[in-house]
Design brief:
Subcellular location: Cytoplasm
Keywords: Activator, Bacterial flagellum biogenesis, Cell projection, Cilium, Cytoplasm, Disulfide bond, DNA-binding, Flagellum, Transcription, Transcription regulation
Protein name: Flagellar transcriptional regulator FlhD
Largest sheet: none
Number of helices: 6
Structural class: mainly alpha
Radius of gyration: 16 Å
Subunit structure: Homodimer; disulfide-linked. Forms a heterohexamer composed of two FlhC and four FlhD subunits. Each FlhC binds a FlhD dimer, forming a heterotrimer, and a hexamer assembles by dimerization of two heterotrimers.
Helix content: over 70%
Distance between the termini: 42 Å
Organism: Limnobacter parvus
Length: 105
């Protein structure tokens, strides 16, 4: 993959992520904070961005989002297809919510 193509994909991912984040925050700020792994101040800042600001930020060569979980248990829950996916997903969400609460404290 060429460098230009990679950078364009990063920019597209940034725009998608920022638009999704703003939508989640508008619909349910508390849930968005947990799902996005951000604090309330960041949620407020994202929510206040204008369209022009979102486009400028999305144009960055640096990815705006990152892989949030480092716990192997979360990876196992999310990738284990032998178990009930809904239960595994809820368990992973509970673990991540607990981790978010620890980081915020």
């Amino acid at each position: 993959m060429k460098a230009n193509e990679l950078l364009e994909q990063i920019r597209e991912a940034n725009l998608s992520y920022l638009l999704l984040a703003k939508q989640l925050i508008n619909e349910d700020k508390a849930e968005a904070i947990i799902r996005l792994g951000i604090d309330e101040n960041t949620a407020d800042l994202l929510n206040q961005l204008t369209t022009a600001q979102v486009l400028r930020i999305a144009a960055s060569n640096m990815p705006m989002c990152s892989i949030r979980f480092e716990d192997p248990a979360v990876w196992k829950l999310l990738s284990d297809h032998g178990k009930d996916r809904a239960i595994s997903g809820m368990h992973a969400a509970i673990l991540m919510a607990g981790r978010s609460a620890q980081i915020s404290a």
